[in-house]
Design goal:
375 residues; single chain; Serine Threonine Protein Phosphatase 5, Tetratricopeptide repeat; Alpha-Beta Plaits; 3 domains; four-stranded antiparallel β-sheet; 63% helix; alpha+beta; 16 helices
């Protein structure tokens, strides 16, 4: 009898403990969700208050401390932010989200040595899905230190791991422009356009590099797209007209292409989200009444389009992915190439962007996602 009473007493106590745990979870989750809503609305005061309440209700949840650290970082409470990220890592040493944000925090504080150390630790976590962000901020750190070579190298690795990382792609292209490497800059802009990133400022950038390469007709085509795009701002239109004047002068042989003292336009968040198919421009736009015979550079060797279906930090991982694609969905014409320490898995060799786009859609239906590149 005593044993039966003890059993029921234990069962009642255990049940109450479970119920209390459920209540606590509901409460911290409620404050965490409120904090995230306020954070996204940039109401950091309310965000901090709710994240702090959540951290007190559930101090063993690393994502709560990580969120609190992010909110503190936005209001430049850097010491509190650092403490929150460190607390998240004390709860879970493998929580790379907090480690990434800690590296970004050190970058903002200009403590570059600490930032490099932490971000390189993030890169070593093969299970972390945001590794491209660690590469990107490592590039930013080296840029701040005046190391342009490593800045470009890490931007290239960031875009290799996530080819649709538009901010990194644009920074990489602008870095190439700054070095006068217009061919490499053109390749980056073309990759964005080929993958449906349609934006008047990218068109203007393409016009600019085509101008420096002496491809006058192509430059005018892109300028026309800027001028006809309803999303073009007055500033972009003014820059387009200035560039057009330089192109026409260069085309008529009066002077060599001159570098314009115009900052490469930035892409705002709204424009980044538009990924409409770029319009095809047929023929040369009628932008001048009198035109001299074309003086474009001779056409380069025909390029092929490939689909990048993976990027890895080791050749063994890249080969394993290639073999899996070959075995499970019967893909052929897969190759592994190395670029800046990143091993890319490329598929196919298509003669046109349209052909590559159709194949990319077919791959998406099989849950294989990729990115069109030109070679």
């Amino acid at each position: 009898m005593i044993r039966i009473l003890f059993f029921f007493l234990f069962l009642f106590t255990f049940s109450c403990a479970i119920k209390q745990e459920d209540v606590n979870k509901a409460q911290w989750q409620y404050h965490y969700d409120l904090g995230m809503s306020s954070y996204m609305a940039k109401n950091y005061s309310e965000a901090i208050a709710n994240f702090f309440r959540a951290s007190q209700l559930s101090p063993q949840e690393p994502k709560v401390w990580n969120a609190l650290g992010l909110a503190y970082m936005e209001v430049q409470e850097y010491q509190k932010s650092e403490n929150a990220f460190i607390r998240a890592l004390q709860v879970d040493k493998a929580y790379s989200d907090a480690k990434l944000n800690l590296g970004i925090l050190y970058y903002r504080q200009r403590d570059y040595e600490k930032s490099i150390k932490v971000l390189k630790e993030v890169i070593e976590d093969e299970a972390f899905p945001q590794k491209h962000m660690a590469f990107y901020y490592l590039g930013r750190v080296y840029q701040a230190m005046g190391n342009n070579r490593d800045y470009i190298n890490y931007l290239k690795r960031a875009t290799a791991y996530n080819p649709m990382f538009v901010d990194a792609q644009l920074e990489l292209a602008q870095a190439y422009e700054g070095l006068g490497d217009y061919i490499s800059a053109k390749d980056v802009y073309l990759n964005l356009i080929n993958n449906g990133i349609n934006n008047p400022s990218i068109d203007l950038s393409m016009a600019r590099v085509e101008h420096f390469l002496g491809n006058h007709s192509s430059a005018k085509n892109y300028i026309k797209r800027v001028l006809e795009d309803r999303q073009s701002t007055p500033q972009l239109r003014a820059q387009a007209y200035d560039l057009l004047s330089a192109v026409l002068i260069a085309e008529q042989g009066r002077t060599l292409p001159q570098r314009l003292d115009v900052e490469a336009p930035k892409i705002d968040d709204d424009n980044q989200s538009r990924r409409e198919k770029p319009r095809e421009v047929i023929g040369t736009p009628e932008l001048t009444a009198k035109e001299s015979p074309p003086q474009d550079t001779p056409p380069s060797k025909a390029r092929v389009y490939r689909i990048q279906v993976g990027a890895f930090s080791s050749v063994d991982s890249a080969k394993a992915w290639r073999e899996r694609l070959e075995k499970e969905i019967k893909l052929k014409n897969l190759v592994v190439i190395e670029s800046s320490g990143v091993f890319k898995v490329l598929y196919g060799a298509f003669n046109s962007r349209e052909e590559a786009t159709r194949e990319l859609e077919r791959l998406k239906n099989m849950n294989v996602y990729g990115f069109i590149i030109q070679e």
